[in-house]
């Protein structure tokens, strides 16, 4: 049965005020349907994300009061006029979304039907907005308006819309057994981690290691080989460094391990962070993964200082095949450059600011570096991320355990203090329950 | 019959003198075998390349007199002790190279058998040197010493070593009908052009356009789709901009056209250069390509000013799927950024200098840009480049014609003047005949 919803009442919302460090829980109007494609979602849980801190700190060039948050899960309580009939050629949810359905949203809106979305680049839909920005109120509230909801939302109540590789038994368990605090990871951190891992594993410069065939014959069995001698086993070991072990970095590590275990590919992974608390979290997560999810390789967790020596030793001075940069600043990029091999790949999913890139053209030429930047197309990554979430409940299932990515669930009265403590690194990932 | 070769005599060589703009033709000793893997090649033809100008102008940080040139073709006149027996596990030419064989060399030495070479990354072999640098005398001489020649050289006299996709009739013609001035393009410009095109076409972010399947299902038919609607024909048209129409840029265009024609992929290509002479050359080359090599798409040649409007118009403001940057400076990179779409790819094969990259992290994040930098692994690209050379004798066959990449063949007495005029852009690609 559908939850009661009144457009005339007020609600509680976590609001950011300029210029910086000013978070207030305020009473504001409950959002209304504004366009036929809108949905109103009653928020069950909303999370605080590292990238919320850009605006919090006043670094976002933002000067408008708005409701924070781009990670939320909830229940549909109102739908625009586009829904409820069989709509040919539009995204599935315009036909399949109902009042009362449980949904999770990616951190940006995407229409799901324009040229950019058709290609799967949903994170850059021209009709997209970031939740929790001056353009679109966020999910740290009791209700949130979701524009283009039929293209944006993922319906957790209707497995026929999932496009998942899960079998029927796994789907049934997914519908009933997974906690909302776990499903909420789909909003941002899990698809972004999967995106980082996927880009590295699919990059042409990584292909020789993965396929066991030299460049350029790695691309197609029809292509011809050159003068080279055959690859040996050592050449087929992929070495990956992950720089930054916040929640996204940990998700990237779990995704990478899963993908390499599935492919039975030998590997060495080094996960790097300057903070001991984050390194300990990464170790606990790794230890909680069942053997089948760990695959056939070495996995170590180190500080920045130790990491260069470790990669050098592992690879005989050659460097890492790929580096996942999950921080978003120039010192992380510089470390990534130092660690990566010639003909290596740096995948950067961190949100970067105004500083110039810390490389000269000659540095990039001399090492034949490839760089993949940018925001995760979260909605497009949902099927892969969802399947991984279901598979890895050993690490994505809990709250407050050593291996949990979620540190605590709190009510809005603790919102201001939570922002402060999260910004200072005193606490891990926080989820708000707007109804407690 | 083998050419006469005397280690005790002197030879003519084009030599660079510090600090800059000082080219002299001098008499120097003929090189000797120094190591068992060496070969001595009697140079038939040697070309002047745009990247020779870095040292010429004094920008290379070089202060040692040396013989210039990294593009040469010739005949083997002496071999070290590693050759002439069946050597298991070493590159083919240690068994198959003979005195008198016609050979072409890539612009760098590569051993062909270390970890880096086994992966096909021959341009970054740790035992590699660039010909025509203080570390290794170049090919603008009557004789040149080729270290690690069994891994480095391509044997134009023995089609059994080619690993080519050509049929027997094509191979026979290749052995007899192709001019040395055409084969010389294998040394650098043709494999580098193929490398640029190949990197763009194989990049994961280009995959949805090429495969017609959305990200991330483009990677594997087993992967699951998301909420997206199907791609339409317009989504499957690849739009590529080529920035810089020197010889490498033209080769990149021909390679790209050939690859897209082979795949029957619809395309739009815009080839861009500020110089009208280069644009005219590009147009003449395009017109000389037979219809089967032109494929199914539009090809236009424009100035920088016109190009932004053209790409905008073609793509409804979205931008180019990929940009090939074949210049090697920051203004070319900036233009590439302006032209590329969100989730687009910039492939940079230009030789870059010390200036900082002209992008902020935020710019790259906001457009989800991918960048592939670096030197072509020329030896690894030889089979693909060679097949294209044979196929495209309509444009790669001549000298001094409107569609020819080679402007003229001159003797060493014109070396000093040729460097000057080439540096000023007064003449196109020059080949030296050391024996005229």
From TrEMBL, chains A, B:
Residues 36-149 form the Alcohol dehydrogenase-like N-terminal domain. The keyword Zinc applies. Keywords: Metal-binding, Zinc. GO terms for molecular function: metal ion binding. Its cofactor is Zn(2+). SUPFAM superfamilies: GroES-like (SSF50129), NAD(P)-binding Rossmann-fold domains (SSF51735). It comes from the Eukaryota. Gene3D superfamilies: Medium-chain alcohol dehydrogenases, catalytic domain (3.90.180.10), NAD(P)-binding Rossmann-like Domain (3.40.50.720). Transmembrane segments: none annotated. Residues 264-388 form the Alcohol dehydrogenase-like C-terminal domain. This is Alcohol dehydrogenase.
